[in-house]
Amino acid sequence: MMIRIFKNANELSAAAAEIFVQAARDAIAAKGSFTVALTGGSSPIKLYQLLATPVYSEQIDWANVYVFWCDERWVAMEDDRSNAKMAFETLLNFVDIPARQIYPMYDAVQKPEEFAAQYQQEIKNIVGADGAFDLILLGMGDDGHTASLFPGTEVLNEQEKWVAAYYLEAQDMYRITLTAPLINCAKQLVVITFGEKKIHALHEVLEGTYNPALYPSQLLKPIDGQLLFLTDEVAASQLSYAVK
Q1: H-state helical runs in the chain
Q2: Bridge-partner residues for 230, per DSSP?
Q3: How many contiguous H segments (helices) and E segments (strands) does the chain have?
Q4: Rounded CA separation 42/9 (Å)
Q5: Element (H, E) at 69
Q6: Rounded Cα–Cα distance for residues 137 and 69 (Å)
Q7: Confidence of residue 244 (pLDDT cuts 50, 70, 90)
Q8: Where does 32-57 have alpha helices with state H?
Q9: For 154-188, what is each residue's pLDDT tens digit?
Q10: Where are the beta strands (DSSP E) in 95-238?
């Protein structure tokens, strides 16, 4: 695990954009395609906006990029709560990526559990039987959750499924998420988290007692890949010198 600390969210986002571009270029050069799972929420918005600008977008062969999501609220893509809607409005509408290579986590016809099984099969078809994404972008909530792996939820114990759908009582809605076993197969995991509200969770995740039922981001332990936390000086303010 590595951590990089930046002065502010703008510098962090620029570094994340460089990481994204390099991962894409390396993967396409090595095997002809780049597979990525995007994160939602507010943390990656600046990153996606940067990637949509020519200085970054023109460095990527988008015709060979395959886009999935880490998690999603089970809402229509027209809904403002949709992670996919946000990604299209900040990035995907501005780059030349074939629509058939974009895999939103929603289907108006199927039930969430049925769709999760289908999504898992699509990952196997595109990413491969080993489930090793070239890059997975993640955020971390104020409570230490990542993707839709929330504290105290049964999905934290999932060992077989790559994709799971479940009803989250606290939010009165279904969520669909990549599970920890699949996430940890990635070649590169990048966690974007910044701001005052993340101080406590980041400290507990990186330096607290191991208790993923309370701080699910502690489940991030790549099997054969890299784990990188990108954060800012504020969020990292309680971390020890050793971790920094």
Answers
A1: 9-31, 45-51, 54-57, 83-90, 112-126, 180-183, 199-207
A2: 4, 192
A3: 7, 9
A4: 11
A5: strand 65-69
A6: 9
A7: confident
A8: 45-51, 54-57
A9: 999 999 999 999 999 989 999 999 999 999 999 99
A10: 135-139, 163-168, 173-178, 188-192, 226-232
d(CA 223, CA 202): 22
The owner of tokens 């015709």 is 63
CATH number of 2-232: 3.40.50.1360
Q: Using an 8 Å Cβ cutoff, are 130 and 78 in contact?
A: no
Tokens standing for 124? Answer: 């196997």
d(CA 144, CA 66): 28
Closest CA to 230 of 196, 194, 179, 176: 194
Query: Contact 175/72 with Cβ under 8 angstroms?
Result: yes
